[in-house]
């Protein structure tokens, strides 16, 4: 699954005013709901349930929140660049300023894991991270993420 198939420009937001992990997950849920017609509350609950199993803060200021959607037929990704880092219970205890969320249909579990893995790899590239953190617009952020 190519990133540009699941991440759209309107699901890419730079310099987001975000005050908490909860608010970040709410914002992601609201964006996904606009594109899937699903309930943002339901989406939020799915992501929150996943976070309760263990934080998706993978360290180095990055979080990859993810969940399965029950009544959707396509995966959708959201990329948020926070104006100020937020506490996220990350494995390295550092706050998070880049969130790459992935919500997938129940039946796409294997594909979901491959996409998560490739995203983690992409976000592990110091040059890509530097570019993402210095991006000044949604378009610039999107272009950096999808142009591999």
Write the layout of secondary structure elements.
Elements: H1 3-6, E1 7-16, H2 21-36, H3 40-53, E2 57-59, E3 62-63, E4 66-69, E5 76-86, E6 96-105, H4 109-122, H5 126-134, H6 138-146
Parallel strand pairs: 1-5, 3-6, 4-6
Antiparallel strand pairs: 2-3, 5-6
Tell me what the structure shows:
- It is a single chain.
- This protein is of the alpha/beta class and 148 residues long.
- It has one domain: Mannitol-specific EII, Chain A.
- It is 45% helix and 27% strand.
- It is built from 6 helices and 6 strands; from the N terminus they run H-E-H-H-E-E-E-E-E-H-H-H.
- Strands 1, 2, 3, 4, 5 and 6 form a 6-stranded mixed beta sheet that branches.
- Helix 2 crosses helix 3 and helix 5 packs antiparallel against helix 6.
- The longest helix has 16 residues.
- The radius of gyration is 14 Å and the shape is globular.
- The two termini are 13 Å apart.
- The model has no long low-confidence stretch (mean pLDDT 91).
